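Contributing new complexes? Match this layout with pyridoxal-5'-phosphate.
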Amino acid sequence: MDSQSFKTLYDELAAEYTQRFPRSAEHHHKSKSVMVDGGQHTLRLFDPYPVHIRSALGAYVHDLDGHRILDFWQGHFANILGHNPPLVTRALAEMLAHDYGLQTGMVDELAYNLSALICQQTGAAKVRLTTSGSLATMYAMMLARSYTGRSVVLKVGGGWHGAQPWGLVGVSYGKRGYGGLESEGLPGEMAKEAIVTRFNDCQSLEQVFSEYGDRIACFILEPVIGAGGSIPAHPEYITLARQLTERYGALLILDEVISGFRFRAGDVGRLYGVQPDLTTLGKIIGGGMPVAAVAGREDVMALAGREGARRVRFDGGTYSAHPASVLAGTVMLTYLVEHEAEVYGRLAELGQQVRVRLERIFADRGVLAQCTGYPNDAVKGSSMAMLHFPVKPGVVIDSPDVAADPACCMIQVREQIFKLAMLLEDVYTVHGLGALSTAHTQEDLDGLYEASDRAAQRLKPYLS
Ligand SMILES: Cc1ncc(COP(=O)(O)O)c(C=O)c1O
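Output block (do not edit by hand):
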């Protein structure tokens, strides 16, 4: 889509959007008077302004203008059973009715229950809880740097590990690819301490290890890369990651903040037949509440403990192991473990249906569109889907750089045009769709297909 067509279509969609969501506009204006950009997290804030919601249940959110919006974002992918599942909300209500639930700052049985479940389902020896995925990945990197006595964090270009120092390198694709510090306010040396390799590219990985191997403290990657493109790693890539980290004395950190408990009732590392040194978890493990964790090897985790002289100040935070959060997480994980076959079987089925149908709908309207999120030999079923708009047929989207390179995919069409076109149909998408939850019914998906078909028709005349 050329820039003039993009502008014409964007303006048309934005004008309709403004008419359709007037109360959100009003509230956005008010929000901007006290909050930077009117809200939190860049992914929640988009042009011309985000829909402001007032309630959420199952597959839907309800906004200030009275729309019932079918949601595929599902709380940053945290809500695998849909919004506010009664299973969790009832347990929380009951807890609060019995004088427990808000923070005490003491230890209790609840944190043990969640930690034991995480160890059982991931094969980790020890776990420590914290409050956000960003903190979990930061602590994991600190543990790795301390354990190895080395400074360099190796990550994949386009991998999002949260807004923490080493995570803020190599996330956005620029003219020279990935690399460099993406935030001011960090120590300048950070740029030298985080280096970037290409996802799913075995040759590049071998090369980077042969060049920097003796300086690399850890290699951190998502086994199924989320924001970078909903792409599962090739099994041989994860195997090689394990072999090279072992050979060079670096730690392997699998960042499973998205993938943990999304593809099975546990970590995805197991599906690849790999035991990482550390796993970071978040999102689903909190059952809709803020919980994150680092889980891993006894000797590495010990560095955070008293016996390890607290060499790594992984202190977790005031709200770490918050009773209500930990209860919500335990209820959620217990359910997922007990209903594993049913939950993940259904999610895989829905995911596959959505990816195939969306591609067909756009093809039938003569619009080139391609889904990622398809399973592979290791990850056999997947509830994730991103819709991309390649510039030509035959683009193989197996790494974030392909999804983000304007010479391969029309990223603004996905992020702005498709997003607004779908919101005008009362469907909330992120990165070209998002993830399925068990709350999504066949009727909901049929609604998604009708909405997508109308969106495809809107796009078609503007594509050259
Ligand atoms: C893979 C991955 N790691 C880490 C994070 C950071 O988690 P949080 O947003 O809870 O800080 C995210 C967040 O989206 C993520 O997707």
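Reviewers usually confirm one structural detail per submission. For this one: The pocket of pyridoxal-5'-phosphate is lined by residues 76, 132-134, 137, 160-162, 222, 226-227, 255, 257-258, 282, 292 (CB under 6 Å).
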